Fold each of these.
Amino acid sequence: MADFRAMTAVEVIEALRQSAPTLILLHKRPDADAVGSALALRLWLEAMGSPACCICADEMPEHLAFLGAGLQESLLITAVPAGFEGARIIAVDTASPAQAGELVPELEARVSLMIDHHGTGTPFADHYILPSAAASGEIVLALIRASDVAVTPRMATLLYAAISADTGCFRYSNTTTATHLAAAFLVERGIDTAEINRQLYEAKSLSLLTAEKAGFERLHFYESGRIAILTFPYALQQQLGLKDEHLGTLVDVARCVYGVEIAAAIRETATPGVYRVSMRANVDFDVAAVAARFGGGGHTRAAGATLTADDAERAEAMILEALLQAER
Ligand SMILES: [Mn+2]
């Protein structure tokens, strides 16, 4: 494996001050932290004289369209954008090449810098990774503040959304004093936090509610209700006309029930027999370690992996067994 270097904040800022066309890569199935951090990074680079464009293997999810409005409506890349042929590439919030997904192949190997807060990935470029940060947005904000570029209200909106999303609106255990101080700084930039949080947490499409209802009906409880798991077959997703982005909150359906300590949502992908699992812990339990057994990763209390199983029942049994083994 190539040797990649941990960079300091000063080195990252120095490198990004060198103006050059820049592609900012965010992980597939982008969340608000990825989108907010990447778009804020784009605005910062542009302020320092570099043309920049955010790219992703998936399109902007509809519930995050408000973040890109008037700035960059589309993230999906199918070809190298004009003017960015020899661009440097920075990955944000992306812990592994697998998370980058199916991009234009020649781009994947050309990432020269990773900015991330996932502690469990394998660095695939020189990197600036702070696992203590609640969100990549927290890291991008600190970098901008350490440069001589002012944080505009637009940047502040993007970064607040990023941090709010990855902390579940400042509720999860990854929320630190530094997180609140970062948020306070952003609020001082004059942003509409009520509207940002309404967009992130209250506004739900009918498709999302349909997915949650179907997920609820498939919820199974184990160990006297301490473990909740649901599986979502691809055939059901197709029957209900749901996109992948509508299934992103399924794990919360399992996690929110009284008494549940560990929750998992398993959904079959378009490839038959390949399942994507999201796990959450409401107690001190390392779901990232369980995800790692299936080649995945994440954080102690929020992690994901991909597994292969004959059917949905078998996939659920595999996850339950792995969780029970890890508890022993
Ligand atoms: Mn993140």
Note: The chain has two domains: 9-202, 206-327.
Amino acid sequence: MILSFAPMEGVTSCIYRSVHAACFPDADRYYAPFLAPDGSGKVKLSALRDLLPENNPRGLPVPQILCNRAEPFLALSRELAAMGYEELNLNAGCPSGTVVPKHKGAGLLLDLDSLDRMLADIYSRCELKVSVKTRLGVESTAEFPAILELYDRYPLAELIVHARDRNGMYRSTPDLNAFSAAMEHSRAPVCYNGNVLDRRSYNVVMSTFPALDRLMLGRGAVTNPALFRILRGGEPLAANELRDFLDRLCGALRESGVQEHHVLGRLKEVWYYVNHMFPGADRELKRLNKAGTLTDYRAAVEGIFASGRFEPAAAFPGALPKSGG
Ligand SMILES: Cc1cc2nc3c(=O)[nH]c(=O)nc-3n(C[C@H](O)[C@H](O)[C@H](O)COP(=O)(O)O)c2cc1C
């Protein structure tokens, strides 16, 4: 089973990925949050820094590109190849209201003819392996068979399916029935993504699709960073290792030279998920949200761990249907 850490913009930066890999070395792959090149394939230096090999000492992630034309994709792919990358991922899933109207992310699925032309160009000219991370559709998961038929014309290195349509954003219940078309017909190796948040949801997906051998975990793994180990049959998360992970993350963010308020912002972003491991610690978590300095932050973290509310079986909230029906 190949278990991948999903790209999460604003959360799974190179610093997060490196600290996670050091503390919880059970993820097979990390996908980096999207790069959004301009028309000539240029991206901000700060975005490229996230992918510099020296900033990814525990192994290179798979970079992801968000664009709607082959040219910028190909130009950026050459730059990434020169940095040592061998595989790229195309984002066909971002549901954001600022992205979709530009026919990027899940907006690529609005016009399959144009996506077809873009993929034809990319797959005939890109020297790197290219995988796709897709939604099941824009308005409806019923769009998926036509989308899948299009992907099947190209040699995708992998087809990662976030089993929702764009309208479902991150809230709708993943549609396992619609996803099953990928298991039945895709020529490319298929990776399932969406609401695998704990052992129970993992079992639902695996009992529905016993042949599935690739899973991508996002919010569940940020909430419980030991989730990869747990799904492989390992020990549950212990409070002290979560504490150690968060302390190391705080230290690494500080050492990176980022300003204190940015460090705080990034840590709070992580706590937006981790807070679910402490059900009922509302007062202590509120204090963390209000922290204006790292000193306040550390005191709040101390209070959260001292509250005795840590619940190793807790998870990010989210549902999956009991079967593929
Ligand atoms: C805050 C946030 C940022 C995300 N950033 C990206 C991204 O950069 N690229 C991408 O393909 N998906 C992105 N996603 C989607 C996740 O990779 C994943 O597909 C989604 O969260 C569903 O998986 P999960 O239920 O395991 O979280 C993001 C999701 C969230 C919540």
Note: The longest strand covers residues 129-137.
Amino acid sequence: MREIERLRELSFEMGPIRPPSEGGSFSLLIRVTRNCPWSRCKFCYGILYNRERFQVRSLEEIKRDIDAAKEISDILAALARKFGGFSRVASLIDPYLLYGKNLAELDESELKNFQSIVNVFNWVISGGRTVFLQDADSLILPTEKLVEVLVYLRQAFPGLRRITSYARAKSLARRTLEELRELRAAGLSRLHVGLESGDDEVLKYVDKGVTSQEIILAGRRAKDAGFELSLYWMPGLGGRAMTRQHAVNTAKVLNEVNPDFVRTRRFIPRRGTPLYEEWKSGAFQLLSPHEELREIRMMIENLEITGRVCFDHYINPAYKTGYGYSWLFKQDYEGYKFPDEKPKVLEIIDYGLRLDEALYVRAEDLIDKPL
Ligand code: SF4
């Protein structure tokens, strides 16, 4: 079939990660840079990107990818019309049917082609409304270039409602309010920023490369420009030694910024990172599950925001039950509305503190689990 032949020729490049809240809504993935320009944070070290060198992709490359995604979506729509719906098209997206091989047997270019088709298909059947720009810091691009990408993207897909990206607070702080407004007007609508901690000692210790004041400035400016802002914090990142200041100062920074979403990602020492080595050598002490909960409680007690607090990742506190594992907090992307649901979150933590600590999944248990 002519359409299938053409589908087999179309691919675009995708980076390795996206926030779960973007994966869950099946965003179309458009890679504008490769890897992380910093790769120094001691808890991450760019291992998610295999510590590969940061690269800025050319406008031509990015536009070629957008064109490929557009053509794939047009072909899928044509096939859906021909066969009576996308559920029928789903059965065509099969490695054996496309290449006569199992998924595990595909070569690099076949795999890239297959993943591109799957990404576009999932995106189309979930409404084709959202795009996530990869990789770790799209705001490092010159404003004019990013605006050109956004305009091109919206011309290709006029039905888009949301375009989102990761941004380092440092890069965000370097943008003027006018530049951010320009990006917002061009269609970039939501930013995901790793705050990790609001405490300067913790930030310095983990080599985040940014201060709490820069994060406040960046966050406020993003809000002023009209962005929807998600800030991520990492319970346990200050270890036992800095738990109190980590909790209290994180709440302070969040209160100053008042982001739309506070997303919680518990600290897990990952192999290949400097903090893993420090933990192994005894220089860094992980919090126990109850200590983590007390730290989260301290942060929440001090939190005075009007956004939502989320625990939308499986690494957050969970305990063993007779049937498997149960997560203490709900895992959805909308979380708990503050201030209304703050008492509820505190009650959940108090319930968690009454459970036997031995029932909990410890940070150490998650070291080799995928992110
Ligand atoms: S900026 Fe983000 S991706 Fe880069 S090293 Fe730090 S945490 Fe990792």
Note: The pocket of iron/sulfur cluster is lined by residues 36, 38-41, 44-46, 136, 168, 194 (CB under 6 Å).
Amino acid sequence: MHIHHLRNATMLVSLGEHRLLVDPMLGEPGAMAGFKLFGGGRRRNPLVPLPTSATDCLQQATGVLITHEHPDHFDAAGIAWTRERRLPVWASAMDVPSLRQKGLDAHELVDGSLGLSVEVIPAQHGPGLVGWMMGPVAGYYLAHPSEPSLYLTSDSVLSDSILEALARLAPDLVVAPAGSANFGAGPSILFTVDELVTLIRRAPKDVLLNHLEALDHCPTTRAALTARLQAEGLTSRVRIPQDGEQLHYERGSTGPHPRPKARPSAKPGLQKWLTSKLG
Ligand SMILES: [Zn+2]
């Protein structure tokens, strides 16, 4: 499995014959308003450009994978780019109808899609009511028979469903957002650094941390994270890529991957409807 990290949560994952572009935020720096609401420091997003390697990288994409419809995961530029190329868009049942309304060739990602073992693992984009108001988010476990298995937690705080999935599915690589986003007041809407430490300790194998230094409401830096992981003795299994960095992961064992758990697919309801009006 090859990962080309581009910026924030945007990356190209090579999984078998697939080249899946995850959560493309492709806009120019400053194309979007700031997300930080309180306490100063509001700046237009994204803060940084795509790396120069992005142009060649994007051309390889055979499909797009969306974890949720926030603009730092699928912005206007990403939507236009995907629509122009008529690439299939894979998403949870929550997001497929609204993605189709945007003129995209959207498909529900289910177990067996793309020849992969798939489980959609609920994510919680903040604690309690804050998380509900942030709207639905899908984490994905993806396992290709001849590749390391991958668990994209997507934007979440630490939850029992994430810890349960780590223990049951033993993913070879966990990708987690590490910017500790918050609006300048109120709780963190992504894993805190303490929660990341717990997540890394509970992840059985490798961890990749992204969603860093690209948005005004994500205060945690790569340097601060690295220092904390060094203090915790956790650097050996964790990578914090620079934008444009490419990483390769080999499958450690030849046995079958754990089978995903069958779950009913959650259809869009009040939360999706209301939060899409607010977003
Ligand atoms: Zn995000």
Note: The chain is about 25% helix and 20% strand.
